[in-house]
Design a protein that fits this description.
alpha/beta
Length: 225
Amino acid sequence: MRMLVLGHGKTGKLVAEVATERGHGVHVLDAKENPRGAALTAPFVAGFDVIIDFTTPEAVLTNLRACLAVGAKVVVGTTGWYQHLNDMSGLAIRKDAALLHGTNYSIGVQVMLQLARQMTDSLKKYGYDFKIEETHHTQKLDAPSGTAVSIQQAMNAAGEVPIESIREGDVAGIHIAEAISAGDKLSLRHEAFGRRGFAEGAVRAAEWLSTRKGVYDFRDIFTQI
């Protein structure tokens, strides 16, 4: 397939590498080449089977509007824009496009979300308190992380579970969900050793999306990739 990768940061570069390894033709646009979505003209976008966005919360909405408006298929790995998800989903449906969104494309994280939900459902009636802690590199733009918010949503049976956000060094991502009582503590911990797991998941998601239309959440389809 022909894949367009938007964003040339650490994850975007790795997405391009993984896509190339998997036999796809890849074109990468960084922010300088695509100011305010200017490069995403209809003829240009039409040259690609699927688009993967790993940019910034400021750039992603402009990119989405340009791509979805011409019926493109877009996988979004950028976080920090989900207050606009309904609008972008509506645009995708109106334009017969495809949108796949996810706060984290790691398969391990997706399993953690399922376990966090199960932990909360099982322990909430026994007087446990719940909390979430996430640690990321100092360049991460959103806090709490999109993944931490997804974990919080998975634990919604316990109400609004507090999130502590830590920014230090070049940490790829650590997420911890805990249930604490007077007698014990149960912890779920996911630690990313690097960004490759995110990149591989995003590329596999793009392969999956290439034959579909509509709007999808990675949490609902990750077992199919």
